[in-house]
Amino acid sequence: MEYCNFCPGYCCYRLKGSVLLIDADDINRLARYFSIPDGEVRKRFMENRYTFKVKEDGSCIFQSNEKMIKRCTVHEARPSQCRRFPYGDTCPYLEREDLLSEIQPRVEKSLKSSWLKK
Ligand code: SF4
Ligand code: SF4
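^ thats the input. predicted complex w/ iron/sulfur cluster below
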């Protein structure tokens, strides 16, 4: 079961205790992706030297909230921390009951509809 397909993308939100750290390589990758100078990436998308801006709901400036899959609008050029998460381990957000309670009903609904189709 791929929980990511049923998750609002908590890893792309600025939740308490989480931080997305951006380095110079990440900036340059985005600059090449958008064909703009590194400084322009900093100006448009960075909140400070170390991290992206977030939207009002706390989600990453590059996250599309319209859909449940393929939400990262810069997926090909996403930062290295995003590429590595959850570092070959179980996603830590799934261990938080408050967050899991939002995903679980969607997972169950999907399982139920796939059983009904059989
Ligand atoms: S928070 Fe975890 S389950 Fe949700 S999209 Fe990110 S990696 Fe997937
Ligand atoms: S760059 Fe993409 S994968 Fe990384 S936090 Fe933002 S939306 Fe999520």
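The two ends are 17 Å apart (CA to CA).
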